[in-house]
UniProtKB/TrEMBL annotation:
Protein name per UniProt: Methyltransferase type 12
Pfam family, one: Methyltransf_25
A GO term for molecular function: methyltransferase activity
Top-level taxon of the source organism: Bacteria
Methyltransferase domain mapped to chain residues: 39-123
Keyword terms: Methyltransferase, Transferase
A GO BP entry: methylation
Species per Swiss-Prot/TrEMBL record: Sulfurimonas autotrophica (strain ATCC BAA-671 / DSM 16294 / JCM 11897 / OK10)
Length: 226
């Protein structure tokens, strides 16, 4: 199953499970002092950014590759939702036809096939950015307990790439999300979409992991580029 498919599958549940993503969206917007009027939201999901923008704007283009998320996204005369995959260079050719003053992306770009290509494409638009990317120490203890390598980009590599393509600030924030029990924790991982359908453990291995996981919380690491 592709990443986009899982986010669509759990789109109706996503609003109940994206607690950390909501916090990330709030912090990302705190870096945007200019109150831009024409905004691109890349990997918009079900509209967390659109719901949280407090200033008046002329146009918000919301782009996502999960149709289920776009269906849930707020609609208005100032919001245009379009299907698009930021891994597809053709999307950026399309975006060059629009006049944006700001690019936002929260909790999406960690699923880039090639982060450098994405940053290179964003840089060609010559527009200020505010990006939030989940990084390798997300679920750190879970991966260590399972003996798995992290799925996501590490912060050093991400920082090196953003220095190459942007004149931006770089800040890393750690979050924790507590659970009453391990079963609820693993249900969250599945229904929040953050597992991205990368089911690398067998049922037996997953059961063992649930028994051995030593914490009552999940760890999240997010890099903000702004």
């Amino acid at each position: 199953m592709k990443v986009s498919s899982e986010f669509s599958k759990y789109a109706m549940h996503y609003g109940s499970y994206n607690v950390i993503q909501q916090k990330v969206a709030d912090k990302l917007l705190s870096f945007v002092a200019s109150k831009p009027k024409n905004i691109l939201d890349l990997g918009c999901g079900n509209g967390a950014m659109a719901k949280k923008i407090s200033w008046k704007y002329n146009k918000l283009m919301a782009v996502d590759f999960a149709p289920g998320m776009l269906e849930l996204h707020p609609k208005s005369e100032n919001i245009e939702c379009i299907y698009g995959n930021f891994n597809d260079a053709n999307l950026f050719e399309l975006l060059k036809e629009y006049n944006f003053d700001y690019i936002l992306s929260a909790s999406a770009l960690q699923w880039a096939d090639d982060m450098e290509k994405i940053f290179e494409q964003l840089q060609t638009l010559h527009i200020p950015v505010a990006l939030a990317v989940f990084t390798a120490n997300t679920f750190e203890t879970l991966y260590k307990t399972a003996g798995l390598e992290p799925l996501l980009i590490n912060t050093d590599k991400l920082n090196a790439l953003q220095k190459k393509y942007f004149n931006a600030n770089f800040e890393v924030v750690h979050y924790k999300l507590e659970f009453d029990n391990v079963r609820d924790m693993f249900r969250y991982i599945k229904k929040s979409g953050v597992s991205a359908s990368r089911n690398v453990l067998s049922y037996k291995e997953m059961k063992k992991l649930m028994q051995e996981y030593p914490l009552n919380y999940l760890e999240f690491e997010v890099a903000f580029i702004y």
